[in-house]
Design a protein that fits this description.
By secondary structure, this protein is of the alpha+beta class. It is built from six helices and ten strands, in the order αβαβββββββααααββ. It binds a DNA duplex through helix 5.
Length: 259
DNA sequence: TAGAATGTTACAGG
DNA sequence: CCCTGTAACATTCT
């Protein structure tokens, strides 16, 4: 469920709760999408200390003592749930019990959320990484006829931006989400580039401030146009709705359509 | 109460 | 073969 800013906050909050704790027991409830056996996961991770939790694209990565990493992708409906007794979990995918702490689990009623042992590193730049340069954005936009929103959300091109923040970023940049990627003028691409970084970072700070130490939930308080309940943009223009790539998209006529 | 849900992927069609 | 758009996935919530 969460998008990049939420995941960033969850990563920080997982560290707050579990950093330096030893993983006592791991249980894989749904193994269909796991890239290794439950036994190998246990052999490699149980008894090890968690020393960092990072966000990479739309995944969380748990770094354990010994150099092994457990990646978690929440997909559309995945959630992190703390628990005292794992039998109480609804739709668990994988659960982790730590010494001298509660456990936490990845759950997903759709069974789509995926744990990955030692996820391979990616060449695709994360939206908040140094590799995400203006020249890179110019290059990929020039290459495609897809609507710009579709491109921003394409995880094979930029990692981390989802449906909600694609709308938010494009409204901030005053670019219509339906704009033909290659038709966007250079000056506008520059605006877009800077807004990706500043908007996401601002959102992380705001959500972080509002979340205390939560690991789940959605804070939509800071969204400006994405959401059925939002009728007007902050500048008082009517919010319009359409579907792009099968996903609801919110925009206003303040956003210029390039085609 | 039928439809929508912040994602990804396989597949169809051009 | 490359590019783009659509449907399916399984369940819950409104």
């Amino acid at each position: 469920m969460p998008e990049l800013p939420d995941l960033e906050v969850f990563a920080a909050n997982l560290e707050k709760r579990f950093k330096h704790k030893t993983l006592e027991r791991l249980k894989a409830w749904v193994i269909k999408k796991l890239n290794v056996s439950e036994k190998e996961l246990r052999d490699q991770l149980q008894g090890r200390k968690l020393f960092a939790v990072k966000r990479e694209g739309k995944t969380l990565q748990l770094h354990f003592e010994g150099g092994n990493v457990l990646g978690l992708h929440l997909m559309l409906h995945g959630e992190l749930k703390t628990f005292k007794h794992e039998e109480e979990l609804k739709h668990p995918i994988i659960s982790l019990c730590f010494k001298d702490a509660d456990g936490f689990a990845l759950t997903d009623f759709q069974k789509a959320a995926t744990p990955t042992f030692n996820p391979p590193s990616s060449d695709v730049p994360d939206a908040l990484s140094d590799e995400m340069s203006l020249s890179y954005l110019e290059r990929i936009l020039a290459k495609t006829k897809k609507p710009v929103k579709t491109l921003l959300m394409d995880q094979h091109v930029i990692r981390g931006i989802g449906n909600t923040y694609a709308d938010e970023i494009l409204w901030a940049a005053r670019i219509s989400p339906m704009s033909l990627s290659k038709a966007i003028p250079k000056a506008k691409v520059k605006d877009l580039y800077h807004l990706i970084g500043t908007l996401l970072r601002k959102e992380i700070a705001q959500i972080g401030g509002a979340m205390s130490d939560q690991l789940s939930g959605e804070i939509k308080d800071f969204l400006k146009i994405h959401g059925a309940h939002i009728k007007e943009s902050p500048t008082g223009k009517k919010v319009q709705v359409t579907k792009i790539g099968g996903r609801k998209s919110y925009f206003t006529d303040e956003q210029e359509l390039f085609q």
